[in-house]
Amino acid sequence: MADPLALLLANTIRATSRGLTDAFSTRESTREWLVAHATNVGMYLDLEAYLPTEDERVALVDLRQNVRALFAEYVAPQPPSSADATVLPAFPQALAAINGAAAPTLRLLNWDDAGPHAEHRLLTSDDVSTVMAGLADATIEFFSGPEAAQIRVCPAPRCVRYFLKSHPRQEWCSVACGNRARAARHYAQHRD
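Structure tokens predicted for Zinc finger CGNR domain-containing protein (192 residues):
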């Protein structure tokens, strides 16, 4: 099962052995992420030829921070991801920003031989507004659906990711994080 787009967007910040990395750190890396994920929300733009301006990159970072604020609110009273908990926008502002970014999205009910299904139409005239509307709409769809109940913060040392708990015994976002947590616990026990 592929991760929902809202989770992929929230996890564009990752911890590595060198520290935090951000998929939106440059205009080029932002385009790479958009190209890799644009079709997940039905955006059929020519993003290969699109290079966001610095202002557009910053707008996408702001949108991501608002999405991360929604994740932080959802996991409360557990602590949010340590990556940016102190710099996230307040929840009411984040919610308003997501709804505002999704405003140019129109969701229609389409009924064909396969039966009823939702169809998204993005009513924007420029690439970045289309991208932001699609990402915001995917976030709204995710948080209003049943998968949101599975959101967890990875408790492994140095990890800053959110994940969906897909198994009752799952504690970490990945096997690597589980190994890192067990190694840290073992080291702490034998150090004392």
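The CA atoms of residues 5 and 40 lie 7 Å apart.
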